[in-house]
Amino acid sequence: MNGKTALRNIIRRIQVNPKHFKLEEIGGEEQIIELDISSSRLVEIPDGLFEGLDHLRVLILEFNDLTKLDADVFSDLISLEILDLSRNNLESLPNGLFKNNSKLEKLYLSENRLRDVDEQILSSFTNLRHLDLHRNLLGEILSKREETFPPSLQVLNLRNNHIRELRPEIFRNLRDLRELDLSNNSIQSIIMENMENLEVLRLDHNHLTSIDVNSFIKMDKLKELHLNSNELIVIPPEAFAGKPLEYLDLRENPVNIKLRRMWETHNLRDFFETLEIFG
User: Fold this and answer.
1) What global pTM score does this model have?
2) What digits encode the pLDDT tens for the residues 25-36?
3) What phi and psi values does residue 137 have, to the nearest 5 degrees?
4) Burial of 270 (0-12, 13-18, 19+ CB in 10 A)
5) Which residues contact 160 (CB under 8 A, 6 or more apart)?
6) CA 114, 117, 119: angle at the middle one, nearest 5?
7) Separation CA 269–CA 229 (nearest Å)
8) Rounded to the nearest 5°, which phi and psi values hold at 84?
9) Which of 64, 235, 268, 278 has a CA 20 to 30 Å removed from the CA of 121?
10) Residue from 214, 269, 206 nearest 236 by CA
11) 269 vs 263: CA distance, rounded Å
12) DSSP structure class, residue 252
């Protein structure tokens, strides 16, 4: 099936025109490589809608009214690299949903109603670099999980998920992670393991009252740390020693200028002279 035939089939079956599509000649025929059917009031995806789209690389389905997905809905999309399912009403994802999408690199699931994401669904990815799960309801299940996420991740967004507690092991296999967003949750304490490549960590707008000396252990590449809008009273200077921090945000915490004086007594004057600090 060539791209134009596939496109006509999609329009006929869902009764809407794509917001955007891109055709590219492959093997002497025009094929769809990008397809945007966002904001189309879709409540379901008909069986076989994506049949023949084995060259599709980008699929945008955001801002619809999807509440569930069939396990085989993306099975024909063997070349898919970017999938956006954000701003729908998904409550769960079926096992095997991404079994044929081994090339997927970016997955957007933000602003849904997900309470659980099966470990087998995420751990099966080998090329996934960017995962956005912000504004879901994953807090309870994440407090019980170990090694939920694929080790290939470089960017992980868990903002606004009602997270109260995280086991240190949950991020243990994310050795390639560069950015982690845990802001706008209800986290009270934090200790992370084996995240030696992390460069940006957002923990703002939580309920942290103190930082442990081991909270950021082995984060030897950490450059940017957001701790603003917490309840921090105790911050041991040793927690940041030896890290190449360039930006530290401590605004809207009970700590005050005494913190600076305390750290200076711990021989961290040079650290303060080079750091862009807000607090």
Assistant:
1) 0.91
2) 888 788 999 999
3) -130, 50
4) exposed
5) 134, 135, 136, 183, 184, 185
6) 170
7) 25
8) -115, 110
9) 64
10) 214
11) 8
12) S
